[in-house]
Write the structure tokens for this entry.
Amino acid sequence: MIEINQLSKKYKGAEDFSVLNLDLIVEEKEIFGLLGPNGAGKTTLISMLSSLLKPTSGTFTINGLNFKEHKNELKQLIGIVPQEYALYPTLTAHENLMYFGSMYGLKGAYLKESIHTHLETLGLSRFSHKKLNTFSGGMKRRINLIASILHRPKVLFLDEPTVGVDVQSKNVIIGHLRQLNANGTTIIYTSHHLNEAESFCSRIAIIDQGSIIIKGVPNELIEQQENAHNLEDVFLAITGKALRDHV
Amino acid sequence: MYKLLASAYKEILLLSRDIGGLAILFIMPLVLVVTITIIQDSTFKTINDSKIPVLVVNNDKGIVSESIYEGLEKSNSFEIINSSSEEEASDLVFKGKYQLAIIIPKNLSEDLQLKVNQNVDGILSKFGLEEDSISDVKPQLLQKEVKLYFDPTTQNTFKNAVKNGIDKMISQIETQSIYKAFQDQVAEDEDEVIFETNSFITFKEIIHTKNDKEIIPNSAQHNVPAWTLFAIFFIIVPLSINMVKEKTQGTFVRLRTNPVSYATVLGGKTIVYLGVCLIQFTLMLLIGIYLFPLIGLPELDVSNRILFLYIVAFFAGLAAIGLGLLLGTIAKTQEQAAPFGATFVVILAALGGVWVPVFVMPKFMQLLSNISPMNWGLNGFYDVFLRNSGFTEILPEITLLFLFFITTTVISIIYNEKKNAV
């Protein structure tokens, strides 16, 4: 489904590569977690896969389509849930979704029905005609997610989709993502919530300093790591306890 | 097409949600046009309602000072206030209490008459006339000086107008005195008129006509196009801020992941903001036609010009939007977009001849003016308003405005592609 070959990214003026010679294969209908400390290269990798950043070198294909030759087809195939609320605060939830849905060429009754279904599932239908700037963080996160899945993407990239939301919102979001995955959507997901990743992901990769250090099924990785009881133990054992502050 | 219309609809929604911003967008240009027209209207009026107070120190009290008083009163521009001394008058002027003081020297009339008589006698003696009456000893007369004091803040144009006016008055008095002296010396009968003292050469302004109709521009026709254009170009500020907001809100990032071209996104903005420009323009025309006469300003005459006016406004709007799109594409923050946009519009207006006519600018500035889209727009409006021109005459200007829009939009798209190339 997703095949990444020797993908690298070095930002202008940076001394080190943010992503370095990364190889990865993500199978169809997987929920793949990209975990790593701050600055590990997770967002950079997702940005390259979702056409937001130009790789310095290397290639990748999604559904067999090369990113350089099939840019527009790939955009129709993927959905991205960015870390920030990429929505218009003065528009209502419904207006935001109508607009972003129409950017995928969706229209008419189909689009309205799709919006209604997702809002209903994520518990937001009664707020659909309220402006976004009146929403809580958790509500915005859910609208942020809906805006990216209206066109039923084959692959969904999520960059920390549950950051800063309450437990209830998180449960609804994760539940909806599971449903999407059950319906055939491949999910690539980054998070700092390791417990969430442990139960949500079918496979994970721990990435640090631009390279994948370890990858596999969460339970297997926990078993393989000495004295590890959960994914957090594995993570700390591999990436260390030193702070990763950098500017 | 569907994505373009959806983008335009989103822009309409965004604008409509900012009622304050929308009000500023429409009301401030109207306030600007009304204010400027009221201020500049006086320069177009032959009779000025507001008179400038002028201090006069009359040390002469003769025929010349009487003529100066008469000239100042006739001009209807000045309110004469007598002052007792030069010191007092200069002090008041330099303190800014008055803009102008005129000091008429002592014995000006008497000495002028003496000087004229001496000259006339001299000339007549050369012809063998009046020999007996000419004295060999002529009193030495010193040159007389009418002093003018100006408030230091007074602009040169006003100073020059006053100086020329007074110079003209004194020249007339001198000429008439010479004629009178000849008359007195030569005429046998007091009532006999030898010299016709009225000016032989006069001038007449020939007013441009088209289709046998005289085109007399008024202050509304001068000011409305200029300041309307200025307001139209100010659209670059809200437009560029709108684009920068999309970047900072993250919506632009989402759009980049969507299968929609940057040209479509810009197209949606262009449609809506062009609509805003045309509504602004319509409101300004309505103000000129209906409000101006109510507040004592000349009515804006748009008869038989509406279509061409809208054509110029349409293309001027496009040029302004092109500039806004470029600024919005390049700027990263609102702090970059807003001050730059506002200042740049003022520079373009200055270069375009909105404040000072292009022909009085230095040569280099005149050359720069040729590349200011505001200059093209202003010429287009003047062609329609003041020269009663048709489509052929405005074609060069609207072509330049359209090319400017195309160029700036293409640069925006290329810049965005380069910046966000994947």
Summary: The interface with chain A takes residues 2-3, 6-7, 9-10, 13-14, 17-18, 249-251, 253-260, 420-422 of chain B (CB under 8 Å). The mean pLDDT of chain B is 83. Chain B has two domains: 2-44+217-419, 52-203. Residues 262-294 of chain B form the longest helix (33 residues).
